[in-house]
Fold these 2 entries.
Entry 1:
Amino acid sequence: MFDSSSSTESEDFGDQNTIKVVLLGSTGVGKTAIVDRFVKNVFNQNTKVTVGSAFNTKPIKIGKQEFHLNIWDTAGQEKFHSLAKMYYRDAVAAIICFDITKQESFLECSRWRSELQESGSPDILLTIVGNKTDLEGSRTVKLEAAEKWAQNNDCVYLETSAKSGYNIQEIFDQICVRYANNNQSWENSEKKIKRGFELNEKNNLSPNTNQLRSTNEKDGCC
Ligand SMILES: Nc1nc2c(ncn2[C@@H]2O[C@H](COP(=O)(O)OP(=O)(O)OP(=O)(O)O)[C@@H](O)[C@H]2O)c(=O)[nH]1
Ligand SMILES: [Mg+2]
């Protein structure tokens, strides 16, 4: 079951840098808006509820290296819950989203995490995203609480706004960088992302890639 706007086929670029990414989280937190902002650079105030899932693809260039992201935006509504699990299989990266103005959506992250553990790879690159920072005045989820959750669950935490575009690109950039750092064939080769993000042998990326991005800009890259 898919949104009519989506393709049913995942794209295989025949490239070792193809990364399957799945977004999950409660309904209304902004998963589709995040993907729309990232893929099409648009924001729609009246997005339709996702039915089943929606598929999108986008290449990212970091330094000289190209990555192809196959992005599965799953439905947060309860009635589609059992369907969402089939998209976790073979996912290299997962993004659990919540709405910083909705405490309940944050509390539900633990349930999404458990489901991912049941059906996804144990090595999945996990990111937790607190979306809607443009509504800071209505925030009910404390930054410290979300950061602690991320620490306890060994993942990166980013706050974003699909509306303003804040940190949206960073979500996907840091996934590519972590992927590259984990990938044995990359580690065995010369540093391939020299002019962009350096390979980080200790794999201890800063949760916010703005820092990395500014290093990038200083190098005159991309
Ligand atoms: N103010 C604000 N509104 C947002 C933001 N992101 C999404 N929204 C709005 O939140 C509502 C729900 O967004 P969706 O992207 O459809 O949420 P979803 O998580 O995909 O929901 P499901 O498809 O039901 O799982 C829409 O009205 C969006 O316009 C944001 O960053 N800021
Ligand atoms: Mg949606």
Note: The chain is about 35% helix and 20% strand.
Entry 2:
Amino acid sequence: MLLLRARDRSARRRRRGAALAMIAALAMACTSTRTDTVSGATTTITEPLADPTAEAAAAKSKALIIAVLAPKGSTAKVADAIATVLGAVIRSPEQVKPATLEGYDLIGFGSGIFDAKHHEALLRLADSLPRTADRKAFIFSTNGMPVAIAGEEMVAENSRISHAELRRRLVLAGYRIVGEFGCAGFNDNSFLKLFGGINKGRPDAKDMERARAFALGLKESVDIQRGNE
Ligand SMILES: Cc1cc2nc3c(=O)[nH]c(=O)nc-3n(C[C@H](O)[C@H](O)[C@H](O)COP(=O)(O)O)c2cc1C
């Protein structure tokens, strides 16, 4: 009798797991019908660090964030939080010259996740980076996995998997990945617009706290010098 109940429970767990995976897979599949023009992402940084003093300090920092950010997008919030802690300047892939990246102690690469990878512009930039030895880098993103259904663990797993393409290209260029950050982001791609989007309010206060803690960890582990420009 006890054995039958245990079997029942484990079958129920398996069914629930399979259902969750299916819903998540469906949401992913439905969000993957994009071209760059409809991603909403822009390679122009419209709202960098709000505080001009912070921007001036960041201009002298040896930490750089290269990101594809939509105005008021989810990843922009995360990028701003990390940049503020690191005292880093944020630039788009088009704004950086790969040859001049040598001057930085730490470089972050980030965007939303589109078709299970970072934005094309970031991947293209990674391909064009001159080979370096042991330059420290970190990767970040927000993704549209439906967190209310899938849970935080699956969102984290989705980040890890979706970072693979950028990670591979950076490692190939000789970068050492010293940290990765990902969290849920608001997603109103495709048919999700009809429901007003999913992951409303994400990244939330907890995500932002995690992003700041992540940046603090980087700051403590990487010796970021000040520039003299
Ligand atoms: C065209 C398109 C494709 C997307 N593809 C995926 C995907 O494959 N996996 C995923 O988790 N989220 C996907 N998303 C959701 C975005 O990654 C998510 O909304 C992210 O927070 C967007 O970041 P942003 O607001 O900074 O642009 C997609 C969104 C769009 C617009």
Note: The chain has one domain: 2-221.
